[in-house]
Amino acid sequence: MALAERNESVQLWDPGQASAEASLWRGRGPGTTSTVEGRSLWSLMTRHAPPPTIVKMDCEGAEYAAILTSPPGTWDSVEHVILEYHPVPGAHFSDLRRRLEDLGFHLEWHAPDDRDPNLGMACFDRTP
């Protein structure tokens, strides 16, 4: 299963180096693809009771689709978002930041990678 924009089958690319590097975005070098079930963040968040208050994401590029396309109600219970963001064509950390700020979060800390500004970690908070 993979985090995706919608609940539908998706192609998951695996570079073969480590299972933690599988992604919906094809990377450089050799690898293989597999068809897996995709699940939206909304569908994952609403299947738990009580809903989560902390969201930690490290989903190899799927963070953009998960955050940018999720309905606002997805985030009602969430107080903290901790994420690693990855290079995805046409996507930038500023898109994630703008969306989360529009949802009422503020940036607590941000650590971009020194070698690649499209890779880094950030923490957002909504608690007073």
Textual characterization of the structure:
It is a single chain. This protein is α/β, with parallel strands linked by helices and 128 residues long. The chain has one domain (2-125). It contains three helices and seven strands; from the N terminus they run E-E-E-H-E-H-E-H-E-E. The protein has helices spanning 41-45, 63-69, 93-102, and strands at residues 2-3, 9-14, 32-39, 54-57, 80-85, 106-112, 120-125. Strands 4-5-7-6 form a four-stranded mixed beta sheet, with helices on one face. It has a three-stranded mixed beta sheet with strand order 1-3-2. Helix 2 (63-69) links the parallel strand 4 (54-57) and strand 5. The longest helix is centred in the C-terminal third of the chain and has 10 residues, at 93-102.
Q: What is the averaged pLDDT score?
A: 84
- Largest beta-sheet characterization: 4 strands, mixed
Form type: globular
Number of strands: 7
How many domains make up the coordinates?
Answer: 1
Q: How many helices does DSSP assign?
A: 3
Name the poorly predicted regions: none
Structural class comes to alpha/beta
N- to C-terminal distance: 35 Å
